[in-house]
């Protein structure tokens, strides 16, 4: 038997990332299903697997934990961990880690990019030229464009990504406000205690929160109505933070002006309702898909693997299991 721990992967990692994992672990299988079940555990691996490296949008269920008797660690490659059963993990003494703020600058960068694409009609303008429709200059062809300067930007979730976004968008001469579970003492932006108040105040609503069951569809029909007919919403957190049916209705009926999504309720996105909307910008969940972000996230996963299997506390436990980090160090399942 190898002296390296056996692990499973549950995400399509790059060759370089897999090579980093293989320096310290033995990859014994891969689960290709985006919503894996016990049936997706590769044959002959259940008895030896000690860790899984995947993503929070794939997650892990109590049943999966029960089927892997030696499992002691689940590493989320990225910030989110919304589909990880934390109660089951705590009960079974399984540590769950995440990417913390490793990809925050890169996700914030994309958020700014798709906000500009939405507000300045960049995708629609590009398609117009490619279709050969630019016959003459027509003022306000896509409606009156406000531009960011002088606008009000509301950030829902002022964590690592929200702060990085705030630093970038501030250069556009905007007012910034935020809604958080708690008011921060390290910023002087106006604080709004709930999303409705934030949406009513702002022109551009940027969803940066960590999505979990407590805030599923927090961006609903009422919030979109409060945002108003010149409003834009951008979601780079997790798909289920936005009610996609309500969003489609709001975009079709000019309840809001535009939107941009990098994340979706189900991924890959296979629906059709959003595809017909030319006032919606869509990108395929690649906010953290830069080389710099990939290196930082890979390094963090490797540090968590190294520490855990050396009997040391992991570097980035999910906040809900932070109290377990020290006590679970070294408690490997033999």
Query: How is the biggest beta sheet arranged?
Result: 6 strands, parallel
CATH topology assignment of the largest domain:
Rossmann fold
**Regions with little confidence, pLDDT below 50 for 5+ residues:** none
The backbone outline, from C-alpha atoms, is elongated
For the secondary structure, the number of strands is 11
Name of the CATH architecture of the largest domain: 3-Layer(aba) Sandwich
**The CATH superfamily title of the largest domain:** NAD(P)-binding Rossmann-like Domain
User: How many angstroms separate the termini?
Assistant: 13 Å
- What is the number of helices? 11
Using the coordinates above, name the CATH class of the largest domain.
Answer: Alpha Beta
Tally the structural domains. Answer: 2
Rg for CA atoms = 22 Å
In short:
This protein has 334 residues and is α/β, with parallel strands linked by helices.
